[in-house]
Each structure stands twice: as structure tokens, then as C-alpha cells.
Amino acid sequence: MVDSNEMTINLVVLGRTQTGKSAAGNSLLGSSDFESHCSPSSVTTCCSLGRSCRISGIIRRNGCELALRVRVLDTPSYPHSGLSKEEVKDTVRSALAHHFGEEGLHLALLVLRADLPLCSDESDHTIQFIQELLGPTWKDFTAVLLTHADKAEEAGFSEEAYLHSASSTLVSLLSSVQHKYIFLDNQKSIIKEERAIVLRKLLNFVRQNNYQVLLLKHSKE
């Protein structure tokens, strides 16, 4: 994970169709690695790994600046318009083992839309999927990305006001992952300064978890 002057964090984005998973991945990488556009069906059908260039000015350790590299695994949505739950789960689990099998996963980023209410049935299905994918310690390795934050802002909601008015389902979910959440404006996050803020928050979550990683091995059982 860390050498003398560089640190790499491994992330996976998970979520429903059209929540902005791939766009969020692109924002974190500062690139356009992942296909992302509006569509009446699920756009992503297989997993793909994106890698950032060396990023400076984000992290310091023991008084020295480290270069940061970010690796993001983009995944098919669940529910998916063309794949079953088991197909999505097997695809993601296999890709996690392939790409992060030795180094481990630092954070799974559950992508939700800030401009749409989170209902209890949707939350239950999503949490069950993540539990089956990541195992019993999923809460320690999961953070929530609330995309389309610009639309919530346009509606007059600050982050504090948004969370105060949020459904009990969302509040409960955020509480279960120890309030690890980030509001993401996909348009602004391509700006260097905005991206740096998001990356620092993610690194803080990793630090709070004592730089632990989740090791996932593919099983065909």
C-alpha cells in the first residue's frame, strides 16, 4: 500500500442504475476512464479498473509529503436491467479478487442520488447486496457518496439542512457506516480543488479505519 514516498488507495463504486457511479469514479480519478451517460437501461455491464496519475499536495506522513495514487473499480449496477443479482455479485467479487486480491480494498463507495429520497425497500436490498459481497465487516469498509449534490443545493438545501430533512432510512444507513459520507457534485469534482477536498475526506475515512484493508478472495461455492 505504501512505499517511501507514495500511497495507493483502492476503491470500488457500488449502486443502482443512473446514480452516477461511473461519473463519480471519473471524478475521483480526474479522468474519463469510465463510460457515463444518461440511458434507459444499465450502461455498465462489466467491471473495469481505472488508475489515477500521481497526485501531489493531498497527504503528508511523518512531516513528509506523499504522492497519492487512486485506483477505482467501476461495477455493474444492482438491480441491473440485463444481469441477475448473482451475475452482478459474481462479476464484482471476481474483479475485486483479481484487482485488489493482494493489496486489499480500502473502501467501498455506495453511490446514492442526493436529489432522490432513499426508500426502505431500496435500502434493504442494497445493504443485503453489500453484506453478501463484502461480508460481516462491511460497515467498516463502506462510505456513502451522495451524487447530484448540486441539485439539492439548487433546491435550497445546505448539507446540514439536507441531512436534517433526510428520510429516516438514509439517516439510519449513514449512522450504520459511522457517518462516512461525502456530497459529490459531479460537475465541480472535475475541478482540481474540489477533487482534492473529496480525496482528503476519503483518506480521512481510511485513516479512521487505521489503514486496514478488506481482503476478498473469489469463491465459486
Q: Would you identify the CATH architecture?
A: 3-Layer(aba) Sandwich
CATH topology term = Rossmann fold
**Number of distinct beta strands:** 7
The coarse overall form would be: globular
The residue ranges in which pLDDT falls below 50 over 5 or more consecutive positions are none
CATH class: Alpha Beta
**How far is it from the N-terminal to the C-terminal residue, by CA?**
29 Å
Structural class: alpha/beta
The residue fraction in helices comes out at 25-40%
Helix-strand topology string: EHEEEHEHEHHHEH
Our count of domains comes out at 1
**Cα gyration radius (Å):** 17 Å
Q: What is the typical, i.e. mean, pLDDT?
A: 88
- How many H/I helices? 7
CATH-level-4 superfamily name: P-loop containing nucleotide triphosphate hydrolases
For the biggest sheet, the summary is:
7 strands, mixed
Strand content: 15-25%
Explain what you see.
The model has no long low-confidence stretch (mean pLDDT about 90). The protein has helices at about 20-30, 85-100, 120-135, 150-155, 160-165, 170-175, 190-210; strands at about 5-15, 50, 55-60, 65-75, 105-115, 140-145, 180-185. The longest helix is centred in the C-terminal third of the chain and has 17 residues, at about 190-210. Strands 1, 2, 3, 4, 5, 6 and 7 form a seven-stranded mixed β-sheet that branches. The two termini are about 30 Å apart. It is built from seven helices and seven strands, in the order βαβββαβαβαααβα. It has a single domain (about 5-210), classed as 3-Layer(aba) Sandwich (Rossmann fold), CATH 3.40.50.300. α3 (about 120-135) links the parallel β5 (about 105-115) and β6 (about 140-145). The chain has about 220 residues and is α/β, with parallel strands linked by helices. It comes from Smutsornis africanus (Double-banded courser). Belongs to the TRAFAC class TrmE-Era-EngA-EngB-Septin-like GTPase superfamily. AIG1/Toc34/Toc159-like paraseptin GTPase family. IAN subfamily. This is GTPase IMAP family member GIMD1. GO terms for molecular function: GTP binding. Keywords: GTP-binding, Nucleotide-binding.
